[in-house]
Amino acid sequence: MSVSKITDFNKLCIHTITTKQWDIETIINKYSAAGIKGVSIWRQWLEGRNPQKIKNMMADNDLTAVSLVRGGFFPAPDKAGRQAAIDENKKCVDEAAAVGAPMIVLVCGAVPGMSLTEARQQIKDGIQAVLPYAKEAGVKLAIEPLHPMYAGDRSAVNTMKQANDMCDAIDDTHIGVAVDVYHVWWDSELQQEIKRCGESGNLFAFHICDWRTPTVDMLNDRGLMGEGCINIPEIRGWVEETGFNGFNEVEIFSNRWWQADPDEFLKAIQDAYLQHS
Fold it and tell me: What is the pLDDT of residues 121-134, one digit of tens each?
């Protein structure tokens, strides 16, 4: 299988957390000036802002709101906690609709000491409770399977198969999957599950970065594309074979890069995107 070489930034999206030194207004101006076309907005970047003004500012700068990050965190040890999570996700839907983001990325949640079976059932129940509200607002929900190292406290959905199974069980056009190479690159069933996801119409988003070896921090040591061991072009090829035509979303948590000059980091992202994605 030959993978097309990326030659421009028309499908490049960057998450606001990646260039976290900048506020949302600076991000919009900097990304637009660099020719980047997409931004995935983490919710804290909207705090104290009028989302309609941010939406208008993005439109004026030819920038697309690709997604709002992040919803989820459904499991809780008691009913009140589960209801609070549902209410918070509905608030997230309101924010996504207001800023013009077509989907919310779900970090589904987990509770230390709770069985994975119970956590996954609570995740499914939580999504189903939020889904009618999201559909009414025209906002899709994308389950992001997280690496198994996070199964105990961040997400009990850890493989593409688990995400696909959950989507099949819920069976709605507004629920799908966000594929993040950082979390799923190691999976021997990844190619077939990406294909399955595409055939079901459930492939909503594609996130890229790299896995550094050694990794010195399991949360905040992601690499630029090409700095690690993930075959990003191969996985992108599998994604594009499904007919996916969306953005390639750069999502990097990196203490190392966050200490660098953000303008230099943005340029490094663009260079790495063209060379190693």
Answer: 999 999 999 999 99
HEC-encoded secondary structure of 44-109: HHHCCCCHHHHHHHHHHCCCEEEEEEEEECCCCCCHHHHHHHHHHHHHHHHHHHHHCCCEEEEECE
CB 62 within 8 A of CB 54: no
4: nearest Cα among 248, 188, 260: 248
d(Cα 25, Cα 88) in Å, to the nearest integer? 25
Per DSSP (E only), the strands in 79-202 are 103-107, 140-143, 175-180
Q: Is the per-residue pLDDT at 1 higher than 90?
A: no
Q: Which two tokens stand for residue 260?
A: 């660098």
Sequence letter at residue 199: E
List Cβ<8 Å contacts ≥24 apart for 82-91. Answer: 82/122, 82/125, 82/126, 85/109, 85/126, 86/126, 86/129, 86/130, 89/126, 89/130, 90/130, 90/133
